[in-house]
Design brief:
Layout lengths: L11 E3 L5 E3 L9 E3 L18 H9 L14 E14 L2 E14 L3 E5 L6 H8 L7 E6 L2 E2 L5 H11 E5 L10 H11 L4 H14 L15 H13 L5 E5 L7 H16 L3 E5 L3 H4 L4 E6 L2 E7 L11
Parallel strand pairs: 6-11, 6-12, 9-10, 10-11
Antiparallel strand pairs: 1-2, 2-3, 4-5, 4-7, 7-8, 12-13
Helix pairs in contact: 1-5, 4-5, 4-6, 5-6, 6-7
Bound molecules: adenosine-5'-triphosphate and magnesium ion (MG).
Magnesium ion binds next to helix 2.
Length: about 300
């Protein structure tokens, strides 16, 4: 079952870059595309002219295309101030998040952990602009998103966030390169440049030789790489990954986490939810939630997961 934020199953599955997947009827895989917003990418990041083979090599090395290599300006990507989420079901009130303060710096790699019911999905929904807090303030990349209307929220979501889901959410019967290209179609990037950028994104995730494969011709780990390429291709402010290794075996888990670490090392901010300590060990910072509150917030001195096989 597809889950956009670790539990509930909204009809729309945001993928960033100006498009959302609409869940197929009967609980099947997503199969329809809906253009929820025709957004342009942030200024200076939409198009960068013809791509020569040399430029393409540099793109995939991460030193030209800003989507693969972000410069650190020391800014805050996320600032939550006293963010609360109260659910009312009849007479019962549940404080899913209670006055949470949290700042995430540009370029950080953060794992959010916690037991069932601790508020992880609620936090992801809010961070991903899928939901708004009951009270408190949420600044995403300098934009106050705590009170904006849904259509504007969809636009911000599509411009600022690349989503990676436990269940990959690739379009069936559509090649890897077409899957990666889709956000750029809806962002209005020219055909030639979006194909070049999608190819470069696939090269970047190590799938240069699988561009024309359909999702069902790829392993789980490879499908998740395609999903990461799709999340990257629009140059979002952060990648938000909801249990990105939840459906993978341990070897693919290490592969995917190494890739996220590499992307983070070239400046990409990554926030992920995980239940697994082995996955959290790859993060620079680990946040534990209990009953809607942050009870632990630690920096990993050394990323113990890097370079170690499980
Ligand atoms: N739509 C809702 N209406 C009412 N209560 C809700 C709703 N969504 C979540 N809750 C409650 O809010 C609390 C936090 O839920 P949340 O889904 O964020 O937990 P979680 O940490 O993601 O758990 P899990 O690991 O099981 O996915 C829970 O007590 C849950 O019952
Ligand atoms: Mg959850």
């Amino acid at each position: 079952m597809v889950s956009a934020a670790g539990g509930r199953t909204p009809a729309l599955l945001p993928c960033g870059g100006g498009f959302d997947l609409v869940k197929g009827s009967g609980g099947g895989p997503p199969d329809l595309l809906s253009v929820t917003t025709q957004v342009a990418l942030p200024p200076g990041r939409v198009d960068f002219g013809p791509v020569t083979p040399t430029a393409l090599r540099r793109l995939s090395n991460g030193d030209v295309f800003p989507g693969f290599s972000r410069s650190h300006d020391g800014g805050k990507v996320i600032e939550l101030e006293a963010v609360s989420k109260l659910y009312r079901t009849g007479p019962i009130k549940v404080h899913a998040l209670s006055a949470v303060d949290l700042t995430i710096d540009e370029g950080d790699l953060v794992a959010i952990m916690g037991p069932s019911g601790s508020g992880k999905s609620t936090m992801m929904n809010i961070l991903g602009c899928l939901d708004v807090p009951t009270s408190g303030k949420y600044m995403l990349n300098g934009i106050d998103v705590s009170r904006v209307k849904e259509n504007r929220l969809a636009e911000i979501r599509n411009q600022q966030i690349g989503f990676v889901f436990q269940s990959f959410n690739l379009i069936a019967r559509t090649s890897a390169v077409r899957n990666v290209e889709l956000p750029l179609v809806y962002a209005g990037v020219s055909q030639r440049n979006r194909r070049a950028r999608a190819r470069a994104a696939l090269e970047r995730v190590g799938l240069g030789d699988r561009q024309n494969h359909m999702p069902n011709e790829l392993s789980g780990g490879q499908q998740q790489r395609v999903a990461i390429a799709r999340a990257l291709v629009t140059d979002p402010a952060m990648i938000l990954a909801d249990e990105p290794t939840g459906n993978l075996d341990s070897a693919s888990t290490v592969e995917i986490m190494r890739l996220l670490v590499e992307l983070n090392e070239t400046g990409r901010t990554v926030v992920l939810i995980t239940h697994e300590a082995e996955v959290a060990a790859f993060a620079k910072r680990v946040i534990d939630l209990r009953d809607g509150k942050i009870v632990r917030d630690v920096r990993n001195g050394v990323r113990s997961g890097v370079g170690s096989e499980r």
